[in-house]
Design a protein that fits this description.
binds phosphoric acid mono(formamide)ester, alpha/beta, five-stranded parallel sheet, about 15% strand, four-stranded parallel sheet, Rossmann fold, 9 strands
Length: about 300
């Protein structure tokens, strides 16, 4: 039995197969409409979510399966003090596969050690968000036609942004990726990430101004400042509008640069950018459903 805790749990070859499957699902959805007949997905979300929870649920329904779960720790027995380890033992009796989001880093990993069903990390604190990374990689592969040879700018909250940490770890396995980290000093990419890049001999640079590097980028990955991870509101308010991508800044970019964002967006991308064909963050959401369908089928060994 396999779980998904980190994008590195799959080899590059396995990811290729997963993305090929997601591509086939996109083209031939009817082929997969009954693949999960009689199967149940449990969505155990101890932290708020729109995209991840609902795209998992949509994915399971698209496969002909059923969904149970909770979307708020307060409505589960976690509010009475039940541990994640005990909860997953219960869920293993009710469902065939579980997607879990938790504010504590490592909680889905703890659950996986006690589980009799595959557990998918749907985001753990500021640590990892592997299914967002699968979504990001599928989007890049589908729209750029490759997962190598590009310069990617990651902009915003690089300290707390788990989608950023997961994506970097996944991308270092592909050839000739240049990283440009764009953040205020307070939200710099953690040292453990830059140390990993140095050890692997992968080139990166850190800048503060987005305008200074815009013309170099093939991909721009925007992120929101993570209010829920700040220790005080004052710091959040000071940093929340540090970056606002607008039409003027988009004029500095290559004609084929793509703008991605894991969403939700707050102010960091002006709505006027939405109509720019290089803005692909809403397409990304659709790819998220295909890749989660492919993941459920793969972990349930139904392909
Ligand atoms: N991208 C993402 O994780 O969105 P949600 O928090 O809405 O699930």
């Amino acid at each position: 039995m396999r779980h998904l805790m980190s994008p590195l749990d799959f080899t590059v070859e396995e990811l290729d197969k997963l993305f090929d499957l997601a591509g086939d699902i996109e083209k031939n959805p009817e082929k997969y409409a009954k693949k999960c007949d009689g199967k149940k997905l449990a969505t155990c979300f101890y932290e708020p979510s729109t995209r991840t929870r609902l795209s998992f649920e949509a994915a399971m329904y698209n496969l002909g399966g059923h969904v149970i779960g909770f979307s708020d720790a307060g409505s589960s027995s976690a509010s009475k003090g039940e541990s994640v380890s005990d909860t997953i033992r219960m869920i293993s009796c009710y469902a065939d596969i579980c997607a879990m989001r938790h504010p504590k880093e490592g909680a889905p990993m703890v659950a996986s050690t006690k589980s009799r069903i595959p557990v998918i990390n749907a985001g753990d604190g500021g640590h990892q968000h592997p299914t967002q990374t699968l979504t990001d990689l599928l989007t890049i592969r589908s729209l750029k036609g490759r997962l190598n040879n590009f310069t990617i700018g990651l902009c915003g909250d690089l300290k707390f942004g788990r989608t950023v940490h997961s994506l970097i770890h996944a991308l270092v396995r592909y050839d000739n990726i240049q990283f440009i980290f764009i953040s205020p000093d307070e939200l710099r990419i953690p040292d453990y990430v830059t140390e990993m890049l140095q050890e692997k001999g992968i080139s990166y640079k850190e800048v503060i101004r987005l305008e200074d590097v815009m013309e170099e980028l093939d991909l721009l990955y925007m992120t929101r400042v993570q209010r829920e991870r700040f220790f005080n509101e004052e710091d959040y308010v000071r940093l929340k509008d540090f970056y606002i991508l607008n039409k003027e800044k988009m004029k500095l970019a290559k004609p084929d640069m793509l703008v991605l964002h894991p969403l939700p967006r707050v102010n960091e991308i002006s709505v006027e950018v939405d109509e720019d064909e290089r803005a692909v963050y809403f397409k990304q959401v659709q790819y998220g459903v295909y890749v989660r369908m492919a993941l459920i089928l793969t972990l349930l060994e139904l392909v």
